[in-house]
Amino acid sequence: MSTRQNPVHKICSALTARTQFGQIMRRASLEQVRFVVDRRGEPQVVIMGIRDFLRTIAPEKKVVAAIRAQARRKGKDKLSMRQIEQEIRAYRRAR
């Protein structure tokens, strides 16, 4: 995995993005390449890897990091969606 600080930006057409989506996802994820997808010459969307997104656009806040660490310690970080929904229902009933 690349640890490049300044990701490379590539411009591609919507048709290319549609036909080569798997390759674009792989490059965005592993090589930190950002793809600007245009339609008729107008930029429409950006495709970027999740780690790149979290690092640059939505960095984890300290409080979220603390909650995540606490969940790991309690073994709650591996819950299924069903278990999460049960936890929410139980909490709401208790309130």
Describe the structure in brief.
With 95 residues, the protein is an alpha+beta fold.
Layout of strands and helices, then pairs:
Blueprint lengths: L7 E6 H6 L1 H11 L1 E7 L2 E6 L2 H7 L5 H13 L6 H14 L1
Parallel strand pairs: 1-2
Antiparallel strand pairs: 2-3
CATH architecture: 3-Layer(aba) Sandwich
Distance between the termini: 46 Å
Q: How many domain units? A: 1
What is the radius of gyration computed over CA atoms, rounded to a whole number of angstroms? 19 Å
Number of helical stretches of at least 4 residues: 5
Q: Tell me the helix content.
A: 40-55%
* Largest sheet data: 3 strands, mixed
Helix and strand element order: EHHEEHHH
Q: Low-confidence parts lasting 5 or more residues at pLDDT below 50? A: none
